[in-house]
């Protein structure tokens, strides 16, 4: 069984990026489970505080431990995120900042899934961040399904189309292949 942790960089209830990740979970081939991580928004029990190295003690804040444990338990990570003002959304950057020094992302296979064909600055910035923390980007598994500006109903209809389901399933299969290949190294 391959376990994938899916992280959406959008906190919107009607987020197209989160919808994309839920669709990936639903499209997962046999032997692959996709769990969508919720806890980026800094609100409520179990949510990440703003990154502060002073607070990264032993033990770390519970939500930070939860994020790190979830990453350790995952064979791979999928990230879908919007672009805000040509950058990576703060909530996602905050989560990644919590795992720089603790190293859970080192050698972790990561695929980017895009719900917008724009977002080129965010893609580039995210690629740079993931590279510098030594994650392993799986280019074959990076897909774009344009959902930007769609209502939740239209986004759901697009994601339910056979070609979307196939694209998501192929991406997850590409992740599985990359994970298996690295395990055999
Ligand atoms: C404040 C704000 C700034 C944005 N800046 C950009 C931008 O710089 N480039 C871009 O391509 N889209 C930008 N967008 C559009 C979002 O990236 C887009 O709506 C995205 O699909 C939303 O994702 P979500 O549905 O998962 O929340 C911006 C949206 C907001 C609300």
From TrEMBL:
InterPro entries documented for this protein: Flavoprotein-like_sf (IPR029039), FMN_Rdtase-like_dom (IPR005025), NAD(P)H-dep_reductase (IPR050712)
Highest taxon in the source lineage: Bacteria
Residue ranges of every copy of the NADPH-dependent FMN reductase-like domain listed in the record: 2-141
Name by which UniProt lists this protein: NAD(P)H-dependent oxidoreductase
Annotated source species: Azospirillum melinis
């Amino acid at each position: 069984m391959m376990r994938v942790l899916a992280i959406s960089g959008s906190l919107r209830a009607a987020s197209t990026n989160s919808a994309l990740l839920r669709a990936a979970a639903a499209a997962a081939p046999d032997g692959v489970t996709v769990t969508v991580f919720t806890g980026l928004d800094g609100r409520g029990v179990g949510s990440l505080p703003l990154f502060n190295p002073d607070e990264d003690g032993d033990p770390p804040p519970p939500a930070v431990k939860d994020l790190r444990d979830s990453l350790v338990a995952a064979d791979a990570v999928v990230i879908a995120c919007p672009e805000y003002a040509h950058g990576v959304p703060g909530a996602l950057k905050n989560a990644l900042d919590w795992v720089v020094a603790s190293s859970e992302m080192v050698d972790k296979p990561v695929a980017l899934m895009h719900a917008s064909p724009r977002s080129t600055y965010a893609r580039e910035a995210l690629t740079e961040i993931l590279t510098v923390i030594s994650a392993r980007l799986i280019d074959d598994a990076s897909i774009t399904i344009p959902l930007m500006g769609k209502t939740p109903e239209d986004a759901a209809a697009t994601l339910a189309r056979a070609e979307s389901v196939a694209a998501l399933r192929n991406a997850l299969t590409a992740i599985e292949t990359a994970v298996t290949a690295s395990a055999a190294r």
